[in-house]
Write a structure and sequence with these properties.
UDP N-Acetylglucosamine Acyltransferase, domain 1; 2 domains; 11 helices; about 30% strand
């Protein structure tokens, strides 16, 4: 096992997160709430810590305030372990005054910060994926093969590889070709893995597979510096293809659950999948826990409810309601006789006092949470959303677009934006 002090972890915070809008309207992608009590960024950070890698840089530039708060409240290291999580936002320097222009550009502009810490390898990760991986295994393989770059890859059926970077590999896992998001069926077919590699997979597939890049890279230190000694902006589109035939590139095959949460639909589906009796991602794994902000909230209280396949966060109060296939976030309050089905409710940042609720009512403003006699289906309710009494919300039969009161339909999912107020009796 590689020594932890030889590895630096770099988490890419992403750009504007336009595909996740409106969830990224007031926060960057890594700060988007997940699974009732976590944030997306908790996943790669926890994977790093569970792998023994506690020296972590997080690169971000858009709407970073909530991300900063979360990191500061969630992750603290004792002075003897030499661990840290540093957030590096785009900054003006003598050499550049621009924003990060891509993944490679972001890493290039922060090499000066990385080089202040002794290391032999750099582990580059995405900040918007749901998976559990022991990064020690990919680094160990990187060392054992003498690779310059190792790319984590997941086998995907040929019929489902649209929008993914694909690679051709030899039987020894050496990468011989890399194609970023091909669309031509003939090209995709030509990238199918060999029968010998298919036989090595833990689960024998029923159709041909390609190896899709997970956006997880291990670079040897000097190779990373050389690879970025140019103006290339993106790893997948430019840097990796440019290294083919010049450096030793290997693939690390990962066969566990992995979901790229880059769109509203992907976010919605990944969350609701957690409500299944045996979800594809297990938050109950004691050997590799997911860490987050310890909030010390009271246990949730449920009164006279019908609940079916629901993830219920801490500190919720649900009364006389029906919940089916839902993820209910922290501090959520649901009034009497409301019906939620296929709903991701992110919860609230704080509890309102009785005086605050009374003042809101006097001003005609609903309290934070879902009121009485509501019917909500196939929806995401962002943090601190206010849903009045007798509200009906569903995207069925409605096109994507912006609607009244801070409602957006995206990818066929109805989203109530953060802190939006839906008046009593409203129907959509």
């Amino acid at each position: 096992m590689v020594e932890s002090k030889k590895v630096l972890s770099v988490i890419m915070g992403g750009g504007r997160g336009t595909r996740l809008f409106p969830l990224t309207k007031e926060r960057c992608k890594p700060a988007v709430p997940l699974a009732g009590k976590y944030r997306l960024v908790d996943i790669p950070i926890s994977n790093c810590l569970n792998s023994g890698f506690n020296r972590i840089f997080l690169l971000s530039q858009f709407l970073t305030a909530s991300l900063h708060r979360h990191i500061q409240k969630s992750f603290h290291f004792d002075p003897f372990g030499a661990g840290f999580i540093d957030i590096l936002s785009a900054e003006q320097t003598e050499k550049s005054s621009a924003w990060y222009e891509g993944t490679a550009d972001a890493v290039r502009r922060n090499l000066v910060h990385f080089h202040r810490h002794g290391h032999d390898y750099v582990l580059i990760l995405s900040g918007d994926q749901l998976y559990r991986m022991d990064f020690g295994k990919i680094v160990d393989q990187h060392i054992a093969t003498g690779a310059d770059v190792t790319i984590a890859a997941i086998p995907f059926p040929i019929s489902k590889v649209e929008g993914l970077g694909l690679m051709r590999v030899a039987d020894d896992l050496a990468i011989t070709e890399f194609v970023e998001k091909p669309k031509d069926p003939a090209i995709i077919q030509g990238l199918a893995i060999s029968a010998k590699l298919e036989a090595r997979l833990a689960t024998q597939p029923t159709e041909q597979h390609c190896l899709a890049s997970m956006g997880i890279y291990v670079f040897s230190r000097e190779i990373l510096r050389e690879a970025l000694d140019n103006t290339m902006k993106d790893f997948g589109k430019e840097v990796i293809p440019a290294l083919l035939g010049k450096k030793k590139l290997f693939s690390y095959i990962f066969e566990g659950y992995w979901e790229d949460i880059g769109t509203v639909k992907a976010f919605f589906d990944a969350n609701l999948a957690l409500a299944q009796p045996l979800p594809p991602f297990n938050f109950f794994d004691r050997s590799a826990p997911i860490y987050t902000h310890p909030r010390y909230l009271p246990a949730s209280k449920v009164n006279r409810c019908n609940i079916d396949h629901v993830v219920l966060g801490d500190g919720c109060l649900v009364t006389d309601s029906s919940l089916k296939h839902c993820v209910i976030g922290i501090r959520s309050i649901l009034g009497e006789n409301s019906n939620l089905e296929d709903v991701v409710m992110m919860g609230a940042d704080y509890y309102q006092t009785a005086a605050e609720v009374a003042a809101d009512q006097a001003a005609g403003l609903p309290a934070i949470g879902v009121g009485r006699n509501c019917r909500i289906a196939r929806a995401i309710l962002d943090k601190n959303a206010r849903i009045g009494d007798g509200v009906t919300l569903s995207p069925d039969g409605k096109p994507d677009g912006d609607y009244a009161h801070g409602i957006v339909i995206r990818d066929g999912i109805l989203c109530v934006t953060k802190s939006a107020a839906i008046p009593s009796g409203f129907a959509l």
